[in-house]
TrEMBL record:
Descriptive protein name: Formamidopyrimidine-DNA glycosylase
Organism from which the protein derives: Microbacterium esteraromaticum
InterPro entries (UniProt xref): DNA_glyclase_Znf_dom_DNA_BS, FPG_cat, FPG_N, H2TH_FPG, Ribosomal_uS13-like_H2TH, Znf_DNA_glyclase/AP_lyase, Znf_FPG/IleRS
Pfam families hit by this protein: Fapy_DNA_glyco (PF01149), H2TH (PF06831), zf-FPG_IleRS (PF06827)
Enzyme class: hydrolase
EC number: 3.2.2.23
The FPG-type domain, residue ranges: 238-272
Length: 287
């Protein structure tokens, strides 16, 4: 799933390539992906792109005076840019392309989604806050206003496990499964640690790990075209999706805990005092 650093990379790329260009055509390939009907998507035609913004994991293409094309790539979605966009008609339901956006210089982009579970979402709205997922977002962790004290306030008295708290978009916007693994590894913390039980030095360490991990990932994504962002993300991972490999810090074997639709990865030596974590469904450390 694209997370905040990769989404920021897409925003920077799209902003550079598309700002000032007029949308000439939109083609919907997956009807279920379009979550709004007023304004209609045809309202974008003839509108000039004035900028591109990020809200958590949402990409916001601003057009004209009041229109926004907003999309969330979900678990298996991606954006593909073309300097010369294909003119082949999209057949709804028979293509991985959920949406195609054509511009006045012949360039454009496709939003695609792999797999059978379709979660990619597209919105055409007059205000970004009209998108429910944006309206409920917590603060952005790389914003200057997201201080250590703000972070500590989010943790206070919460019984939630720290892994789940980092992934909760209503508390902190933009962090998903991969970067929460990376942050916790950098902070040398168990993903099962109760958020409200952390003492001040641990909060300091976790906040520092969050800032350094995310900012380094944003920097690594900067300037890369969409086709290169996924590989850049994989290369930067220390533990996530590296089950069975050696931890780059201590050399211990990286382990996984499996859930219904995802897994988490961690290093026992670095994060859990050498103990192996039980499956989350058991909710306990193996003795």
């Amino acid at each position: 799933m694209p997370e905040m650093p990769e989404v920021q990379g897409l925003v920077a790329f799209l902003s550079e390539r598309a700002t000032g260009r007029a949308v000439t055509r939109t083609s919907v390939g997956t009807i279920a992906a379009l979550k709004t009907y007023d304004p209609p998507i045809t309202a974008l035609h003839g509108q000039t792109i004035t900028g591109v913004l990020r809200h958590g994991k949402f990409i916001d293409v601003c057009l004209g005076d009041e229109l926004h094309l907003i999309f969330h790539l979900a678990k298996a979605g991606w954006m593909r840019w073309y300097d010369e966009l294909s003119t082949t008609l999209i057949k709804p339901g028979r293509s991985p392309i959920a949406l195609r956006v054509s511009m006045d210089d012949g360039s454009g982009f496709d939003l695609t989604e792999a797999g059978t579970k379709k979660s990619l979402a597209v919105y055409v709205v007059r205000s970004a806050s009209d998108v429910p997922g944006i309206a409920r977002l917590g603060p952005d962790p790389v914003d200057a206003s997201f201080t250590r004290d703000v972070f500590a306030g989010l943790l206070a008295d919460r019984r939630t496990q720290i892994k789940g708290l980092l992934r909760d978009q209503g508390l902190i916007a933009g962090i998903g499964n991969a970067y929460s693994d990376e942050i916790l590894h950098a902070a040398k913390m168990s993903p099962y640690a109760p958020a409200g039980s952390l003492d001040a030095p641990t909060i300091d360490r976790l906040y520092g790990a969050m800032q350094s991990t995310l900012r380094e990932a944003v920097q690594a994504a900067a300037g890369k075209p969409p086709a290169d962002l996924k590989d850049a993300k994989r290369r930067g991972m220390q533990v996530h999706a590296r089950r069975g490999e050696a931890c780059p810090v201590c050399g211990d074997e990286i382990r996984s805990v499996f859930f219904a639709d995802r897994s988490l990865e961690y290093c026992p030596t670095c994060q859990t005092g050498g103990k192996l974590l039980a499956d989350r469904r058991l909710s306990r450390l193996l003795k």
